[in-house]
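I am writing to request your help with a piece of structural work I have in hand. A protein sequence and the structure tokens that stand for its backbone fold form the material at issue. Please examine both parts with care and let me know of anything in them that strikes you as inconsistent. The record follows directly beneath this note.
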Amino acid sequence: MNRVIYNVTGQTLSHYPLTRVATATYVLERLDRSTDESDRTIASGSATVDSVSTTTDADAGPGEIMATKIPLTSTTSVTVGKRYEIEGADGRSEVIEVDGIVTDDYVLCTHPLVNDYTSGATFKGIEITASMDDTTAQDEGFVDGSYGPLRIVWKYTIDGVLRHTQEQVPVVRHTDGDMDIAGALVLFRDAFPEVGNRSGDATKLKQWAKFCARDLERRMRARGDDPALYLSGDQGTMALAWRVALHAAQMGLGPQNRDIGEWVTEAKDGFNMAWDAVLGSRAALETMDVDKGEDVAPNEPSTKARGVLEFG
């Protein structure tokens, strides 16, 4: 899934077709605009197709000692984490994800190959990419909910059939695994200065905050949700501040002259309220008519392409 980091320039959007395509185009749209409005399309044009094209120089597949090993004549431009297509002379093929590279020798894929391939099988890149519009990435309205969501539509042909593949493109404040720890610690120290002072040096407090941030991310992934979509912004920062307070309370650190048991209960209640606010921030499933047009009378079907995008 594509995700744009707010206020970061030079980002790239990508998509993986089922197989290598000759050419592709894309359209990046804002869905709070009608199909009749000129500013609906943010960017469009030709997408870049991964140029990697090489061959195997030995057999590969489940019949070999290492079913995850693909010997290649060249590994130039092959990248760990990206997907590629391997195709044999008999037409059988499969898409693999590269897990490791030994330069100009072989690559390792994340899962064992399903088919056997003889030397000379083709190994091709299939990813298509487009540059993210920097002005849009720097517009806070796409983060704080002032505007509607973004959508990218990829267009390409496979086996003579024109395909349109669309996906929502969320804009978030931080990368996954990069919550606003500094901001959370400011909130924590402002709200509970005595606890902050009793916790020791700043390094220890930051270590606590990192531990608590990983805990919140773990909780979110356990729900099957993307942490960056929920934990970025003010609500995630507040939840992290209360999680640090709860951790301090469980370590026996509380305000002076306060019963530690009462303080643990207060910190737990505060965290639960903040966490509920985070979960509620994207919990409801929303729908938006994403191709509204002005070409028809009210209550009549549009002659333009229409669609409903669900997100939440």
In short: Residues 53-125 form a domain with the Thrombin, subunit H fold (CATH 2.40.10). The chain has three domains: 4-48+128-172, 53-125, 181-280.
